[in-house]
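Lab notes, practical 5.
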Amino acid sequence: MVQNNKQYPSLHLMDRKVKPFILSALLLLLFLHLQLLSGVEARPLEVRKLDSTTLRMWAMLHSGPSPGGKGHKSETEDAPIPRELKQSVPSPGVGH
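Output from the prediction step:
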């Protein structure tokens, strides 16, 4: 359906007022979108970082036993090693 501007004179005036508003709103949204995109970036790649092979070799060459400490050593120096192991049996009850 074709509308006649003579019949609806307010449409012609509204077009002149609305178009700049819509255009400026779209430009503002585009600008904000570009600002957000420029603020979001990935971590920079560290090209000079050692590769994994060199890093592993360095770790193997420079590692060693921990300095002192008890570790997993027994509480008593001459603790007897248990020779008999407990006989395990199924637990009592249905379904076990």
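Observations recorded by the TA: The mean pLDDT is 71. The longest helix spans residues 9-39.
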